[in-house]
């Protein structure tokens, strides 16, 4: 093997020739770009932003994702940044709660809650090893499974055209959404290499073209957008609201633990070793710090991207400089308003058709984590009760109508908070000596 190729598999190897490194960096970009911009598009719609505001939110989120990735790649080990080959991007885990906050209050409250959530993550990073025992795979799997379930209504709403759309539920919206979903599904199951990896991106492109035949695409915003723009400090404001902050604090604690799992999967899959305590501590602190400056720059909450962990594990390419090319491309995209404006022209039914498979994948990832544990009566009780109470209360939010408004906001806006709390408590108090068996049927 040549020195150029060998450098790809060395964490601190020099940057190989672009002929080797660029396709690998692009592979990471196409795997995460849709997930990075879709939450911003959805939240801008919920918050009622105009075209310029939507473009700015997408720009800020892309720029902050790029800077967060660079911090993780090249930070100070054990202090800030894991210095591992991980990619950061806007996380779907916060989407349901962000939508509720944006609908009730506004974007400023999201960024205030995100800032506090970043501080919570930093504290967890400092005590990562001690707190990790509270979140075994059974608990994180239950939470991730519930996150996936909580996003299904969002996908269906978008497939039907998006709330507020006068054509909501029309056959045209459903036709475009199903066409997009079919393209994504076919490429996922029959595609190979880059085509399979970029299935969602290609599906959105195909759905976008198809939707144009129904007059759903308006490119006027692209013509009006500028060519270059730097992010601004607090472009949407920062306000603190108790219930929003409490909900985000719990979500950030959960995501900090999930980041430990992603970093562990990266080192085990790509480097054949466990992450060191310094790497985990620095990674979680970097996660918290990057979300603080993201809140200050108007970028939505970011987290480690599991699909990119999968790429590292399968290719064994761990060169940090290769992944930094991905961050640089992400940064360049965020500094060009015309690119962000083009993304805002994607019809909501196209996004719904593409993201429903993403949300399904999130739920199944959680199910896989759960299935790794013995399906004992104790474990099935934890998973079943946590998901039932979380999903049940969020679907019947008026069940908490007699409580103070902050209780409804924290516990009814998203099933994740209740599911996480119930799962942690049950895991701590239920006896573990149950013989590993389910009770007889009918008992």
From TrEMBL:
<dbReference type="GO" id="GO:0005886">
    <property type="term" value="C:plasma membrane"/>
</dbReference>
<keyword id="KW-0812">Transmembrane</keyword>
<dbReference type="Pfam" id="PF00860">
    <property type="entry name" value="Xan_ur_permease"/>
</dbReference>
<feature type="transmembrane region" description="Helical">
    <location>
        <begin position="55"/>
        <end position="74"/>
    </location>
</feature>
<protein>
    <submittedName>
        <fullName>Purine permease</fullName>
    </submittedName>
</protein>
<feature type="transmembrane region" description="Helical">
    <location>
        <begin position="86"/>
        <end position="105"/>
    </location>
</feature>
<keyword id="KW-0472">Membrane</keyword>
<feature type="transmembrane region" description="Helical">
    <location>
        <begin position="322"/>
        <end position="344"/>
    </location>
</feature>
<keyword id="KW-0813">Transport</keyword>
<feature type="transmembrane region" description="Helical">
    <location>
        <begin position="171"/>
        <end position="190"/>
    </location>
</feature>
<feature type="transmembrane region" description="Helical">
    <location>
        <begin position="406"/>
        <end position="430"/>
    </location>
</feature>
<feature type="transmembrane region" description="Helical">
    <location>
        <begin position="135"/>
        <end position="159"/>
    </location>
</feature>
<keyword id="KW-1133">Transmembrane helix</keyword>
<dbReference type="GO" id="GO:0042907">
    <property type="term" value="F:xanthine transmembrane transporter activity"/>
</dbReference>
<dbReference type="InterPro" id="IPR006043">
    <property type="entry name" value="NCS2"/>
</dbReference>
<dbReference type="InterPro" id="IPR006042">
    <property type="entry name" value="Xan_ur_permease"/>
</dbReference>
<feature type="transmembrane region" description="Helical">
    <location>
        <begin position="197"/>
        <end position="216"/>
    </location>
</feature>
<feature type="transmembrane region" description="Helical">
    <location>
        <begin position="20"/>
        <end position="43"/>
    </location>
</feature>
<feature type="transmembrane region" description="Helical">
    <location>
        <begin position="350"/>
        <end position="370"/>
    </location>
</feature>
<feature type="transmembrane region" description="Helical">
    <location>
        <begin position="111"/>
        <end position="128"/>
    </location>
</feature>
<comment type="similarity">
    <text>Belongs to the nucleobase:cation symporter-2 (NCS2) (TC 2.A.40) family.</text>
</comment>
<feature type="transmembrane region" description="Helical">
    <location>
        <begin position="382"/>
        <end position="400"/>
    </location>
</feature>
């Amino acid at each position: 093997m040549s020195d150029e190729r060998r450098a790809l598999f060395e964490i601190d190897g020099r940057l190989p020739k672009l002929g080797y490194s660029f396709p690998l960096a692009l592979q990471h970009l196409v795997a995460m770009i849709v997930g990075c911009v879709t939450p911003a598009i959805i939240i801008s719609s919920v918050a009622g932003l105009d075209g310029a505001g939507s473009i700015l939110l997408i720009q800020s989120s892309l720029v902050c994702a790029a800077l967060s990735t660079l911090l993780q790649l090249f930070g100070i080990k054990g202090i800030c940044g894991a210095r591992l080959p991980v990619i950061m991007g806007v996380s779907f885990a916060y989407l349901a709660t962000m939508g509720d906050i944006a609908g009730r209050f506004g974007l400023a409250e999201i960024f205030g809650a995100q800032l506090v959530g970043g501080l919570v993550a930093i504290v967890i990073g400092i005590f990562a090893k001690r707190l990790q025992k509270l979140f075994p795979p059974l608990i994180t799997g239950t939470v991730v499974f519930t996150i996936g379930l909580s996003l299904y209504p969002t996908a269906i709403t978008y497939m039907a055209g998006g709330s507020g759309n006068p054509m909501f539920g029309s056959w045209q919206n459903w036709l475009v959404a199903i066409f997009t979903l079919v393209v994504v599904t076919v490429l996922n199951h029959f595609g190979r290499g880059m085509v399979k990896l970029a299935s969602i991106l290609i599906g959105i492109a195909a759905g976008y073209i198809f939707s144009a035949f129904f007059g759903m695409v308006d490119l006027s915003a692209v013509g009006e957008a500028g060519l270059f723009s730097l992010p601004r400090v607090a472009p949407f404001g920062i306000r603190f609201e108790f219930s929003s902050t409490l909900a985000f604090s719990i979500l950030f604690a959960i995501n900090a633990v999930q980041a430990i799992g992603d970093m562990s999967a990266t080192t085990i899959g790509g480097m054949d070793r466990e992450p060191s305590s310094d790497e985990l501590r620095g990674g979680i602190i970097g996660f918290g710090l990057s979300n603080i400056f993201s809140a200050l720059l108007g970028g939505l909450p970011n987290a480690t991207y599991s699909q990119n962990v999968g790429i590292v594990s399968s290719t064994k390419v761990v060169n940090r400089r290769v992944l930094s090319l991905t961050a640089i491309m992400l940064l360049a995209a965020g500094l060009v308003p015309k690119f962000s404006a083009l993304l805002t022209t994607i019809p909501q039914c196209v996004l719904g058709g593409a993201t429903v498979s993403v949300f399904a994948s999130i739920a199944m990832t959680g199910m896989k984590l759960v299935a790794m544990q013995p399906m004992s009566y104790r474990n099935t009780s934890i998973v079943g009760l946590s998901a039932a109470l979380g999903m049940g209360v969020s679907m019947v939010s008026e069940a908490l109508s007699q409580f103070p408004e902050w209780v409804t906001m924290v516990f009814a806006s998203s099933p994740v908070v209740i599911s996480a709390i119930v799962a942690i408590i049950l895991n701590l108090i239920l006896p573990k000596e149950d013989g590993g068996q389910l009770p007889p049927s009918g008992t």
